[in-house]
Amino acid sequence: MSLVNGRRRAAASAAALTALACLWAPAAWSQEPKAAENAQGTKADPGRLRICAAEQPPLSLKDGSGLENRIATAVAEAMGRKPDFVWLGKPAIYLVRDGLEKKACDVVVGLDSDDPRVLTTRPYYRSGYVFLTRADKDLDVKSWADPRLKQVDHMVVGFGTPGEAMLKDIGRYEEDMAYLYSLVNFRAPRNQYTQIDPARMVSEVVGGKADVAVAFAPDVARYVRDSSTPLRMTPVPDDTTRSDGQKMPQSFDQSMGVRRDDTALKAELDAALAKAKPRIDAILKQEGVPVLAASN
After folding, report:
1. Which of 53, 183, 274, 295 is deepest in the core (most CB within 10 A)?
2. Residue 228's Cα: distance from chain center in Å?
3. Using CA atoms, how far apart are residues 113 and 131, in angstroms rounded to an integer?
4. What pLDDT score was predicted for residue 167?
5. What pLDDT shows up at residue 128?
6. Peptide linkage before 147 cis (omega within 30 of 0)
7. pTM of the full predicted structure?
8. Partner residues linked to 258 by β-bridges
């Protein structure tokens, strides 16, 4: 659920992200009554797993249909607990600071396995960035080294992502900058959370307004699966390197995160993840998420 971690902000420093988070004043929690009591310090119900949550389609939705909602539910049930989603009324970037660290909830789903803010479980899947193009076009891009990327019409990339870094590296960011800002109503991403809606990224390609989108696969897989216009998702190679020699990782292990001193819950989650693995794999397949072998 967290939008800001290694997979999202490969071009940003942890210090910069912390500064960004601090710009927001604490917001009220939107919760069920029991969750609200828990946020105020009432002892958590041991029969429930309190999951930090923020609306972030298609990963997290209040009706429970999001990819990460479904995975969290599978793991909670494998623990013999009832999933208790504690909803934060602001972006998922703030789940660790304003949810987990304030003990309003106990686990964050969908973090990079090396996230330094938390104690992470063993990874339950690995996925990465993809080139997204229309299947009816002869544009099967497989690498940022493809010379056609300098000649195609608009490209859509997320702000602060490896895609944005590579768009700059191949020298066409200025060409696409005004177009990208138009997709967020010209709201600058400086000192505030701004990101292009994954559904919009897909629709731009479907409608022919962009020839290529570069997105984190779990963010767009559902929209690609459900598109009436056939689309292709091609993994961006993990050996992608900028012209200055800096490597740009493209795939990331995904884990759940707990408070750094909560070793007991981490152990419970690890056991439940192993037990729920067949169900998690089935969910990922249903969503159309391309997965890789986890690195550890």
Report:
1. 53
2. 24
3. 23
4. 97
5. 98
6. no
7. 0.86
8. 119
